[in-house]
Amino acid sequence: MAFDLAVGCVVIRGAGERAFSAGGDVKSMTTDPQAGWSFEAKVLNLRRRMEASRWLHDMPKPTIAMVNGVAAGAGLSLALACDLRLAARSARMTTAFAKVGFSGDFGGKYFLQKLVGSAKMRELYFTSDISTRLRWSGSGW
């Protein structure tokens, strides 16, 4: 797709009206589907999935996230990896990781720091506040 001359840009969005992406299925994470896997194998599996953020960020075509409904955790990270984010009035965004005891993944901290600065990025990751509005200028959220 990235090398297809007929493709002008890549747009990602959630299916339906309710969500862009709620991120990972935290409930399923309480049971370990990778039981018996080595730590290294688990890390490799996570890194493979996180490649989606890098692909969106590094793609030679413009990438646009059309955020409808909830964008949380890794879902927010995917939106942040895009070149442009368009949010519907229904958009709700949160880092979400603090509420489930995770540190964050899919490059969200890197992308958010570039957009809003280090202090605001830390605040959003530590509190997991839900934002109903995006203001990407300066340190605004």
3D structure, described in words:
The chain has 141 residues and is of the alpha/beta class. Helices cover 36% and strands 16% of the residues. It has five helices and six strands; from the N terminus they run ββαββαββααα. It has helices spanning 39-58, 74-81, 97-100, 108-116, 118-127; strands at residues 10-13, 19-21, 63-67, 70-72, 84-87, 92-94. Strands 1-3-5 form a three-stranded parallel beta sheet, covered by helices on one side. Helix 2 (74-81) crosses helix 4 (108-116).
Summarize the structure.
The protein is of the alpha/beta class and 141 residues long.
Topology of helices and strands:
Layout: E1 10-13, E2 19-21, H1 39-58, E3 63-67, E4 70-72, H2 74-81, E5 84-87, E6 92-94, H3 97-100, H4 108-116, H5 118-127
Parallel strand pairs: 1-3, 2-4, 3-5, 4-6
Helix pairs in contact: 1-2, 2-4, 4-5
